[in-house]
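Job type: complex structure
Entries:
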Amino acid sequence: MSEEFPPVTDAEPDLAVEITGLKKAFGQLEVLKGIDLSVRRGDVVCIIGPSGSGKSTLLRCVNLLEEPTAGRIVVNGTELTDPDVDIDAARTRIGMVFQGFNLFSHLNVLNNLTVAQRQVLRRSPEDAQRTALRNLERVGLSEKVNAMPAQLSGGQQQRAAIARALSMDPSVMLFDEPTSALDPELVGDVLGVMRQLADEGMTMLVVTHEMQFAREVADRVLFMDGGYVVEEGPAAQVIGDPQHERTRSFLARVLNPTHQGTDD
Amino acid sequence: MAMSKRRRAIAFRRAQYALLIVLVLLIAFLADWGEIKQAFFDVETAKKMFPTVVTTALLNTVVYSAFGFAIGLGLGLLLALMKLSPVAPWRWIATVYIEFFRGVPALLVFVALSVAVPLAFGLKFEINSTAGLALGIVGSAYIGETIRAGIQAVPQGQIEAARSLGMSHGRTLVTVVIPQAFRIILPPLTNELIMLIKDSSLISVVGLTAAEYELTKLGRETLSRSPSLTPLLIAGLCYLIITLPLGHLSRYLERQTGGKKLSTPESTGV
């Protein structure tokens, strides 16, 4: 297996992520039924939709945590679906943040942030630590360098997880429902960090139920249902003035959960 | 005369205490204490066993067990990885090995290794190797299953996080999965170490020179020249000296590695 990293060309392609004809089936169950999606460098794309619509699967296909059944995925100009591509090397440039944080529970915060830098990127311990501390500061957790994950609140764990992903210097960040497992009063901190990242120009794909965040931060919003992208466009349009009936009924249910929608 | 449920429970508990007291008194009065002292606590016999019981027998027991556990851990890890391998024949081999050595008495393995194998292959094993190998071979069957269970108990999210950071499958195993698996299996692994230490007594069926005696062999040897069972009691106490602290050590390590208080959240600086 080759240990090279994908070539970082001076003129990075204008498209950070390019997905064509993506299909994914788990056995008989087809979860993604043909997705086309392009994300420009620096764009923030939020993916919304009911549970089971395939939005998390789509996100997990972008770094090949899920192997697509068909289709082509190109990230930073590297075709990940090409079997000859070193997927481990490609993943170092795609940060991922999970719903369940997934900090390494046996390592303290600093080691969580440095272990992959040292082992995968072969950075010196000093460089790795410097990068880690810089990113911890970015997420406002400088005082927690030595804490174990179990000692942190959910919001702190998620911010540490974001800092861990950032420490690899990714060019794309994937967020898979990053605030869904958090107590309501902790959601704001995490969204704040994500907002700041977006302002700094990070390319982000965010699966989320936070409509307010999507509306304010996203350049584009995708509404998915039943394995298809039903509607996509500027945030204000998809959330503020949805064109499809399914988008409308979903938003009605999400934005006004106590009021029973017309269908189901 | 109807008692409430709670009163009945209280009365029943008191009756049990009364029964225990009666039993203890009965034993205290009926037992021939002089005879018991003679049989189990003969100071003269006990004195004769020191210091050999510590310098030779206890030491050898520890050495044989340590060899055995080292081999058992190595082989066990290998078996666990084989059982989880996507290559089916590896899984079959590991399954057959584990089923076989879990199913046959450890004594047979000791006899086979000390007699049959050296004879068949023209080998001459050191006693350390015989004991270590036999204990390791039998122990690895149990340890392998425990490690496999531990590896499977590591949450999938930990593996996904490692892979998403660009770690290869093998790197993820070494850096994330195995350390966490061992933390999970520390209590059952301690049990297996204790079993293994006790199984080291089986080496006593093999011809040992005096310098190679471990606790059970020394106990039985002294017993044959003594009017009392004291040597066995001494040997038994020596086993407890090793095994009891292990249980405490395991609980301590569990708190250290699994507990929430590994380093104080206040401690800053790097």
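Summary: DSSP finds eleven helices and no strands in chain B. Confidence is low (pLDDT under 50) at residues 259-270 of chain B.
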